[in-house]
Specification:
This protein is mostly helical. Helix content is about 55%, strand content about 0%. Helix 2 crosses helix 3.
């Protein structure tokens, strides 16, 4: 697994951890807000606050950070029914590290359309409703571990694009 060296973020608040735990199940923002008795606006504000606290963008890398730093209990190990290929594993790691479709496509040397399609197929195969749940399942299946650090949000925007 590729290791990146960046600073460990500050601790999440208990409210942040409750939000991340609900998001890890694949629940929608509306469902999480309803369960936690907050508005979707408050949920969005809390997710933005987590991003500012950690310097990353996106719910998937925020969940990965919470697992990596053991602020949330790590999911129990499970067996994936099938064998993910090298590109699929790379894609999960990139999603966990905060990459968007353009960065995933460039890193995997595939088109953006293919990256988007393959990521959807992987989510379907893994039983994930969204990228956040894919990260939770990635921890279950052993595709992710603490060796993968999350890159700061501005790191990916400086990455060169394919010609």
């Amino acid at each position: 697994m590729t290791t990146h060296r960046y600073a460990v973020p500050d601790r999440f608040t208990p409210a942040h951890l409750r939000i991340l735990a609900k998001l890890a199940t694949g629940a929608s923002s509306a469902s999480v807000a309803l369960d936690l008795e907050i508005t979707t606006g408050t949920l969005a504000t809390q997710v933005q606050a987590m991003g500012r606290r950690t310097g990353v963008s996106g719910r998937a890398p925020l969940l990965h950070i919470a697992y990596r730093t053991q602020q949330l209990p790590r999911p129990e190990q499970a067996t994936f029914d099938g064998i993910p290929d090298e590109i699929e594993l790379q894609m999960v790691q990139l999603v966990a590290s905060g990459a968007a479709i353009p960065e995933i496509a460039d890193a995997c040397r595939i088109s953006r359309g293919t990256a988007k399609h393959r990521l959807k197929l992987l989510r379907d195969r893994a039983g994930a409703a969204n990228d956040v749940q894919l990260i939770a399942l990635g921890w279950c299946y052993g595709w992710l571990d603490e060796s993968l650090e999350v890159r700061p949000a501005d790191f990916l925007s400086a990455a060169p694009t394919r010609g």
